[in-house]
Amino acid sequence: MRSALVVIDVQESFRQRPNWRHASRPDIADQVGRLVAAARGRGELVVWVLHAEPDTGDVFDPALGFVRLMDGLKPEPGEPTLTKTSHNAFTTTNLQQLLTSRGVGAVTICGIRTEQCCETTARVASDFGYEVTFAIDATATTPIEHPSGRTLGVEEILERTEYVLAGRFATVKTVDELTRS
After folding, report:
1. Torsion of CA 34, 133, 59, 146, to 10 degrees
2. What is the pLDDT of residues 11-55, one digit of tens each?
3. What is the distance between the alpha carbons of residues 40 and 67, in angstroms, rounded to a whole number?
4. Which H, E and C letters describe 5-48, residue by residue?
5. DSSP conformation letters of 115-162
6. How many angstroms separate the Cα of 170 from the Cα of each of 15, 61, 120, 136, 150?
7. CATH tag for 2-179 (out of 3.40.50.850, 3.30.2130.10, 3.30.70.1660, 3.40.50.1220)
8. From CA 45, how far away is CA 125, in angstroms rounded?
9. Residue 135, beta-bridge partner list
């Protein structure tokens, strides 16, 4: 079965937000870079996904120039870059068609935000029948403030995401586990 690494929203937009200083993995580009190198070494497809919110005037508006991969990450020739406008990487892109046309049956998910775009993509991929691996420490998130005033910390978010995905929608692994020779 062919595999693909799907890199979601590891883009400069997030570093422009004030809450990025509280990110669970400020070194996300390095972690993702390790996964990318390993995937390329195995001859796997690497798919890059960026999130855009055109005409909003915020950091996800392509006109501002932040809807680009974080420094240190660069697609190689033949590695598609898709732009999405929904939370998951499937709904507003041709990701499923791309994976199907290349015979991909297994995907590894990494990127930003752990509980939002990454988790949602993992769930949709599982529903579409893909074998899903979730690279938990190659995802990043920031604290989430609830309208009640309670704030969910990054460790709680990571633990919750791992708990709800493992054995249901994905196999949860670390970068070290995924990059071992």
Report:
1. -130
2. 999 999 999 999 999 999 999 999 999 999 999 999 999 999 999
3. 24
4. EEEECCEHHHHCCHHHHHCCCCCHHHHHHHHHHHHHHCCCEEEE
5. IIIIHHHHHHHHHTT-EEEEEEEEEE---EE-TTS-EE-HHHHHHHHH
6. 28, 31, 11, 11, 28
7. 3.40.50.850
8. 16
9. 173
Q: State pTM to two decimals.
A: 0.97
Q: Write out pLDDT tens, residues 93-120.
A: 999 999 999 999 999 999 999 999 999 9
Which value, in Å, is the radius of gyration of the alpha carbons in the chain?
15
Strand partners, 140: 112
User: What's the CA gap between 119 and 138, in Å, rounded?
Assistant: 12
- The residue ranges of every structural domain in the chain are 2-179
For residues 104 and 2, the answer to whether their CB atoms sit within 8 Å is yes
